[in-house]
Design goal:
By secondary structure, this protein is an alpha/beta fold. 30% of the residues lie in helices and 23% in strands. It contains five helices and twelve strands. The strands form three sheets. It has an eight-stranded mixed sheet with strand order 1-2-4-3-9-10-11-12, with helices on both faces. Strands 5-6 form a two-stranded antiparallel ribbon. The chain has a two-stranded antiparallel sheet with strand order 7-8.
Length: 228
Amino acid sequence: MRTNSLSLIHLVREPVKASQSEPPLLLLLHGVGSNEADLFGLAPYLDERFLIVSARAPVSMGAGAYGWFNIDFNPQGPIADVDQAQRSLRLLPGFIDELIKTYMVNEACVYLMGFSQGAMMSLALALTWPDKIAGAVVMSGSFPSQVLARGVKQKALERLPLLVAHGVYDPVLPIEHGRAIRQALEELPVELTYREYPMGHEVNLDSLKDASAWLSTSLDVHCTVNPG
């Protein structure tokens, strides 16, 4: 189901296994130049207890192409439009509030899953609004140091579950980006799981299986959701 009635256009998959009246929410954030249909294709492989929302980023980049912020790639590395990124980041807490009210999801069980630029936004949101996030999957991203305008509240991050996955052969955001995320998060009191895969800038079957299993385990451990 596609809806335009909230602040971000999005696709919705209702829970396949409704274990309680307020299901957990999984918010999917796509990468640059893509759209809400991209990660939504992963929905059949993810825990059936989730209400899954795949959001369209607000910055138009052409026909069917959107992003959370403009970014230029040069030999020195990617250069982001930081102001635009911060504006997009400020949209997300309010959008989550809209989703909680509209779809009657469990506000204590809101998870994020982002790829590439969406991974950066997911991590930035989890680190700056940890009271809203129960956990996040960060796939093929980069540490969003320039986007963290609100700062990181270390005490509020205690035991926040985060899964970081990155391809060893990633030509877009090389593996050093994933390892830099790991290094930064190891200095914070989060519950970090870090994994590398023999893949490029993508979600391969092994990384998807691991992300799905991690989300299901996190639901069982951290959220008051009955097994489906």
